[in-house]
Amino acid sequence: MTDGWKGILDDGETILWQGRPDGAVTVSIANVATSLFGLAFAGFALFWMIMASQAGGFFWMFGLIHFTVGLGLTGGPMVWSAYRRRNTWYTLTDQRAFIASSLPVRGKTLDSFPITEDTMLSLTEGPPDSLFFATRTRRTKNGTRQVKVGFERIEGGKDVYRMMRDVQKRHRQADREDGEMDR
User: Fold this and answer.
1) Which alpha helices (DSSP H) does the chain contain, by range?
2) Helix 29-53 vs helix 63-86: angle between axes, to the nearest 10 degrees?
3) Range of the domain at 156
4) In this predicted model, what pLDDT tens digit does every residue of 13-68 receive, in sequence order?
5) 3 confidence band (pLDDT: 50, 70, 90)
6) Membrane-spanning regions, if any (predicted)?
């Protein structure tokens, strides 16, 4: 399991688990709301194009961009989320959690998140399960918001959660032993 990890893992760092998220298309309340708006947007654009085409000429073609945006909003969020997960890989070591992805425009990325005794773990039971251990700040049009980061939609999430808790316990024990040696 350590092929390709040379130069990435620290000396003595051991891989405990590797996995991939479920790549199925999922429907959430937020996705449904965006899809309904997109459907209305595309529907209005289609109506506008039909009405404009009756006047003759090519003026109706200006509605194509709005129609395309509406279609993108209708199915985009669900499809993009599934595509992103299909191109993501997870690794847990005895020190860190890694999230690797390979996406168009963004390219290949590898993010590393240290697992310490202070790391807040959150397990959302599925199936499939999701395990969150960090947050990222995302910019929005009204400021910023915090987005959970973790191993999304994985099989055996409870086992991975247990492994992370064990890593935290080892850090806690090591800190106690270091404190006793300092005395």
Assistant:
1) 29-53, 63-86, 157-182
2) 150
3) 15-22+89-182
4) 999 999 999 988 888 888 888 899 999 999 999 999 999 999 888 889 999 999 99
5) low
6) 29-51, 57-80
To which H or E segment does residue 55 belong? none
Look at residue 7 and tell me if it is in a domain. no
Rg of the chain's alpha carbons, rounded to an integer?
23
CA nearest to 20, candidates 87, 89, 83:
89
Q: Is 15 helix (H, G, I), strand (E, B) or coil?
A: strand
Length of the chain: 183
Report whether the peptide linkage leading into residue 114 is cis, meaning its omega lies within 30 degrees of zero. Answer: no
**Interacting residues of 106 by C-beta distance below 8 A, sequence separation 6+:** none
CA dihedral 72, 148, 100, 86 (to 10 degrees): -40
Identify the domain boundary among 82, 102, 117: 82
- When divided into structural domains, the chain yields a total of 2
pTM, full prediction: 0.78
Q: Which helix (H) or strand (E) holds 54?
A: none
